[in-house]
Amino acid sequence: MAASTTPVDGQFWRSTLILRLQNRNKSESYAFKDLIAFHNRLFESSNALRAENLQLSVQNEKLRLEHSASTDKASSDNSGNGSSKSPNRNEKVQVLEQKLLSLQEELTEMHRRKGENAQQLVDLNLKLQEKERQLQSKEASFSECQAENSSLKRDIQDYQTNIKKLENLNQIIRDEYQANQLAFAALEEKLRKTQDENRLLVERLVRYKSKDADKMNEDNENFLSGGSHNTTSSLLHTIDGLFSRKKQAKVQKELEDAAKESRAVSPESTFGDRGDLGANPFFASNVPSKAISKFEAHDQEINAVKWSSLERLVATGGADRKVKLWDISKGGQHESKGVLVGSNAAVMSIDFDSTGSLILGASNDFATRVWTVSDHRLRVISSEHSGNLRTFLCVEMGEREKRARGGFISRRFPLRAAPAGAATRCWSQLSPPPAAAGSSWVCRRRQSYVLSSVR
Amino acid sequence: MADSADSPVETPESDKTLETQSDREIDSVPSEPPSTSGVADSPSKAKTNKIDILLKATGNAPIMKTKKWALDKDKKIGWIIDFIKKYLKLEPSESLFLYVNQAFAPAPDQIVRNIYDCYGSDGKLVLHYCKSQAWG
Amino acid sequence: MANDREVLREIWDGRVPVCFQLDSSEVNGLQAPDPYYLMVPRLSYFPLVTDKVRRHFQRYIHPDKHDAEMWVDFNGQPLKWHYPIGVLFDLHIPEISLPWCLTIHFDKFPEAELLHCSSREAVESYFMSCIKEADVLKHRSQVVSNMQKKDHNQLWLGLQNDKFDQFWAVNRKLMEVGSDETFKYIPFRLYQGDEPFIQRLVKPVTEEGQRKTLFQFLQEIYAENASKVKVTTHGVEPPSDTPLQWMSEHLSYPDNFLHLCVAF
Question: Where is the region Disordered (chain B) (predicted)?
Answer without folding.
Answer: 1-46
